[in-house]
């Protein structure tokens, strides 16, 4: 019998509705209990009375062992009591944590105690440790789920339990809720409250009536509530683990077991009934509920609340002045009211969506919700570009469900196309219900037919109208239809499949687009509303919100952590040279040099996933992927002398390691780096990073071992023109000589083989070979930072050093090497790498791991098999020509730098003074975003558009970019 909360000792007289008797609890003192325990069970201990509504319970403590002595209420039959004992033993055997009966001196669990000619039925149970959950105010989702699971496990294990004494007439059996309420409702003295109970119980019974004959009946505990569930502390939370009090054990509806548990949870979820429904999924995992049971659940929760309040009020009337009874009844009112906060339809829809088993009232059968959004795994591998993909996915789903439903409010990636300068209409303002052609369409609620065409109808709805299309109506204008009436049949649109489109339109609106552009959401969503509740489905919330993401990110990230754009789009997918926003907008990605083989390349995805499922460990073990990748790198290296590979996780690490190798190998510290360079963020890589954009005081605060040399920028540097190499080399020569005079000959000279951070500027011809010669004359090593420019990006060369005809001692590789997977490498000569052993061992936990190697090998395979270097040459040359033509018409383009798919478009206000057009460059980037192009600025002056797209860029995409840039520069 459910009661909230229970004080230690109760003196209640319980009225039994069916027998009309007062069930007096047996009168037994603790002293007598001690005698009973010792004489009948051989347990000598002290007795302390525990709470119970109908029995009399004593805790018997005997030398550290604890037992519960129960003197049962005389109203219970012998059979009922034996059934309880048998159920406890049955459940304990199945691993459910319940008290177990202890055998008395004669071997039987049930004993009789003779007193004054009376025989009391007594038994001893093992004592379950733990505190009742009723003592806790709030239940989090973890506890709610655990309660559902516990209730489900008891129901599951009792399914095959049988015993005499289970067919009982209990006030709490929800099969007779109607009669109990009818008889006791008179005890509710307040007329409004009485009406409330009568109305709610009436509605609930009506709903229940539709399915009650089909509900499963079995043995149930019947009272798995916060009072009768004990919790144990696990990681600081009281988690429900044990069930006590089998006094209501009887036959009943299986689903009533869950309804009772949920009803009790309602007092612990702060007025949010949906939070209590988390228990349903946990229960359903133990015992799968039928469709009828799902329909019955919420009506039963309401009826349980109604039974509790009428019984409680009745009890209060019987025991006038008993404050405890009144207080307890307040709790019952509270949970009853909470159950009314959720309508039956709403609750059923929510439960069904929780369990992934929605139904739709327009079409018979089960429904599976489709995901056509940007993050849908079914749209991977470029499947979203197939114009038939919605039908194909729907057809797959229809093999296992009757209806495949694409929800209202979803931004459909399937409706988006690449290289479009305006937003596609991705936002669905309709539900699309795919189903077998010929399926009967049913009327979802009582309605009048407003209009009919060959393939659509409009029906009345509250404050709006429902528009259905994609079917052949069988009704006429003015027909008054009742829920469930036939409306027509779905017609075929693809092989055997049709699509019923459902829109709900506010009164007085004629236009109702099924899809609108994301920027129109605010205008249209209030007009064309979600019909889900009208047709029996649960609305599907859009999980994406760029504003929230920006806010979350800002809260957690430091301001120094860079971000693109003033109002950034939320990017959730990549494919080839495209990035896709959460609203389905497709952007052409012209800056992601890391994604060299294209975003989310299926071959790399498969290689990484496959290796991850097989083995991922560190390079101190022996496995083939390590040598596979290293050999491929050596074979591709710009010179046969570069025969040794060290694998790391990033460009920064590669640079740091390269610097260390040079210093250890030469035994010197000084390193010469170029001005305006970026090499990484670690202490070592940052020391040689001289870019004033990345660090405004870079030149002033270099560590003493860094020597900064002039940047050989033939466009706007100290010396200008294609033939300026010699002049830069003269300067470098004298700088190195001066260093030598100071006894500071360099360990190394480091630079990018194309000036990346300066804007993709090609070094003047002869510079790199000349510089290497000078450095080597002073005994230094030459480090080529190929993190950005290597790996085929230049199209005509695999490595940047090859463009300059120079051979370095060490090269650093990253970015493209992993295509976004963290991967970097140093490639050098054996003797240089060997020097490291003077400083001890070298090891990087994930560097060169099997998965890293698989990721890197997949990239090399794709570059080779898809001819991506050749594509970079072809599309890069094409792009260069088109950009040069653009420069003829737009004086703001000062120069086009670079080669292949590594270009820089430098914007200047004056072609003579070369005044950087910094503000204009930022504005161009922002406007290009609106036109569907991702572009960013680079260089010290932030006036160069960095063109370094994935190497799979198509000519069509190159055209789209140039056309968009043309439009922007023309003021469009
Ligand atoms: N070197 C160069 C030339 C780079 O452009 C970068 C990254 N922009 C790095 C090194 C550092 O690479 P990572 O970001 O992988 O650490």
Defining traits:
972 residues, alpha+beta, 9-stranded mixed sheet, 7-stranded mixed sheet, 26 helices, 44 strands, 20% strand, binds 4'-deoxy-4'-aminopyridoxal-5'-phosphate
Radius of gyration: 39 Å
Percent strand: 15-25%
Distance from N terminus to C terminus (CA atoms, Å) equals 76 Å
Helical content class: 25-40%
Give the overall shape, derived from the CA principal axes: elongated
Ions, cofactors, ligands: which are bound? 4'-deoxy-4'-aminopyridoxal-5'-phosphate
| Unreliable segments of 5+ consecutive residues | 1-15
Q: Helical stretch count?
A: 26
How many beta-strand elements? 44
Structural class comes to alpha+beta
**Could you give a short account of the major beta sheet?**
9 strands, mixed
Mean pLDDT: 93
Characterize the structure shown:
With about 950 residues, the protein is α+β, with helices and mostly antiparallel strands. Helix content is about 35%, strand content about 20%. It is built from 26 helices and 44 strands. The longest helix is centred in the first third of the chain and has 28 residues, at about 290-320. It starts with 13 loop residues before the first strand and ends with a helix. Bound molecules: 4'-deoxy-4'-aminopyridoxal-5'-phosphate (PMP). 4'-deoxy-4'-aminopyridoxal-5'-phosphate binds next to helix 17. 4'-deoxy-4'-aminopyridoxal-5'-phosphate binds near residues 678, 679 and 787.
């Amino acid at each position: 019998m459910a009661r909230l909360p229970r004080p230690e000792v109760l003196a209640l007289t319980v009225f039994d509705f069916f027998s009309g008797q007062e069930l007096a609890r047996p009168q037994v003192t603790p002293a007598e209990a001690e005698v009973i325990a010792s004489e009948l069970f051989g347990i000598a201990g002290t007795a302390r009375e525990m709470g119970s509504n109908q029995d009399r319970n004593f805790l018997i403590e005997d030398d550290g062992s604890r037992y519960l002595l129960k003197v049962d209420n005389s109203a219970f039959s012998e059979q009922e009591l034996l059934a309880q004992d048998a159920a406890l033993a049955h459940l304990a055997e199945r691993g459910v944590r319940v008290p177990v009966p202890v055998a008395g001196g004669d071997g039987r669990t049930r004993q009789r105690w003779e007193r004054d000619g009376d025989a009391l039925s007594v038994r001893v149970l093992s004592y379950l440790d733990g505190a009742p959950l009723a003592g806790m105010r709030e239940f989090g989702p973890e506890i709610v789920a655990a309660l559902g699971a516990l209730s489900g496990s008891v129901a599951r294990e009792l399914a095959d339990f049988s015993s005499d004494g289970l067919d009982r007439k209990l006030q709490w059996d929800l099969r007779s809720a109607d009669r109990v309420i009818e008889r006791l409702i008179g005890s509710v003295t307040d007329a409004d409250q009485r009406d409330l109970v009568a109305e709610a119980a009436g509605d609930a019974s009506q709903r229940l009536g539709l399915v009650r004959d089909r509900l499963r009946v079995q043995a149930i505990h019947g009272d798995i509530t916060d009072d009768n569930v004990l919790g144990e502390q696990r990681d600081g939370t009281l988690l429900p683990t044990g069930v006590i009090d089998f006094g209501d054990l009887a036959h009943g509806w299986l689903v009533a077991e869950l309804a009772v548990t949920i009803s009790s949870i309602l007092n612990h979820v702060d007025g949010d009934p949906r939070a209590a429904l988390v228990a349903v999924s946990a229960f359903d995992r133990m015992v799968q509920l039928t469709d009828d049971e799902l329909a019955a659940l919420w009506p039963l929760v309401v009826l349980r609340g109604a039974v509790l309040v009428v019984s409680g009020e009745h009890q209060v009337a019987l025991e006038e002045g008993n404050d405890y009874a009144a207080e307890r009844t307040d709790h019952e009112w509270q949970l009853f009211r909470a159950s009314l906060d959720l309508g039956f339809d709403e609750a059923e829809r929510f439960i069904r969506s929780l369990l992934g088993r929605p139904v739709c009232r327009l079409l018979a059968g089960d429904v599976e919700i489709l995901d056509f959004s940007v993050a849908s795994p079914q749209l991977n591998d470029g499947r979203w570009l197939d114009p038939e993909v919605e039908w194909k996915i729907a057809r797959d789903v229809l093999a296992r469900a009757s209806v495949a439903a694409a929800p209202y409010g979803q931004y459909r990636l399937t409706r988006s196309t690449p290289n479009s300068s305006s937003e596609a209409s991705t936002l669905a303002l309709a539900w699309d219900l795919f189903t077998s052609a010929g399926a009967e369409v049913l009327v979802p609620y009582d309605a009048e037919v407003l209009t009919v065409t060959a393939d659509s109808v409009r029906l009345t709805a509250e404050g709006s109208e429902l528009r259905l299309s994609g079917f052949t109506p069988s009704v006429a204008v003015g027909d008054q239809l009742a829920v469930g009436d036939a409306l027509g049949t779905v017609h075929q649109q693809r092989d055997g499949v049709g699509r019923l489109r459902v829109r709900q339109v506010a009164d007085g609106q004629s236009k109702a687009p099924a899809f609108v552009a994301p920027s129109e959401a605010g205008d249209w969503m209030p007009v064309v509303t979600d019909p889900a509740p009208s047709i029996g489905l649960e609305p599907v919330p859009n999980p994406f919100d760029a504003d929230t993401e920006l806010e979350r990110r800002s809260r957690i990230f430091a301001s120094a952590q860079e971000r693109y754009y003033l109002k950034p789009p939320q990017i959730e997918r990549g494919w080839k040279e495209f990035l896709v926003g959460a609203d389905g907008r497709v952007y052409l990605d012209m800056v992601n040099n890391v994604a060299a083989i294209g975003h989310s390349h299926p071959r790399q995805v498969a290689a990484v996933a496959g290796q991850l499922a097989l083995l991922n460990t560190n390079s101190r073990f022996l496995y083939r992927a390590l040598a596979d990748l290293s050999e491929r790198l050596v074979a591709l290296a710009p010179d046969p002398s570069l025969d040794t590979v060290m694998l790391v996780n990033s460009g920064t690490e590669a640079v740091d390691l390269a610097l260390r190798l040079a210093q250890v190998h030469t035994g010197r510290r000084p390193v010469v780096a170029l001005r305006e360079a970026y090499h990484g963020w670690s202490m070592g890589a940052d020391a040689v990073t001289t870019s004033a954009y990345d660090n405004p005081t870079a030149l002033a605060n270099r560590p003493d071992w860094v020597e900064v040399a002039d940047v050989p920028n033939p466009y706007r540097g100290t010396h200008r023109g294609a033939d300026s190499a010699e002049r830069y080399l003269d300067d470098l020569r004298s700088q190195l000589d001066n260093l030598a005079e100071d006894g500071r000959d360099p360990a190394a000279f480091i630079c990018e083989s194309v000036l990346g951070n300066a804007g993709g500027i090609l070094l003047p011809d002869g510079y790199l070979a000349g510089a290497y010669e000078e450095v080597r004359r002073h005994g230094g090593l030459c480090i080529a930072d190929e993190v950005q420019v290597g790996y085929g990006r230049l199209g005509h060369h695999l490595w940047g050093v090859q463009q300059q005809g120079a051979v370095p001692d060490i090269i650093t590789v990253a970015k493209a090497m992993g295509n976004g997977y963290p991967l970097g490498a140093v490639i050098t000569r054996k003797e240089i790498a060997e020097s490291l052993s003077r400083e001890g061992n070298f090891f990087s936990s994930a560097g060169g791991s099997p998965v890293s190697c698989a990721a890197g090998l997949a990239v090399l395979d794709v570059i080779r098999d898809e001819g991506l270097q050749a594509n970079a040459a072809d599309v890069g040359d094409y792009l260069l020509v088109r950009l040069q033509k653009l420069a003829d018409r737009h004086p703001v383009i000062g120069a086009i730098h670079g080669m292949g798919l590594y270009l820089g478009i430098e914007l200047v206000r004056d072609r003579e003074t070369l005044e950087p057009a910094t503000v204009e460059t930022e504005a161009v980037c922002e406007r290009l975003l609106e036109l569907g192009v991702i572009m960013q600025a680079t260089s010290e002056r932030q006036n160069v558009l960095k063109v370094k797209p994935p190497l799979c860029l198509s000519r069509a995409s190159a055209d789209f970019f140039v056309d968009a840039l043309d439009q922007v520069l023309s003021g469009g």
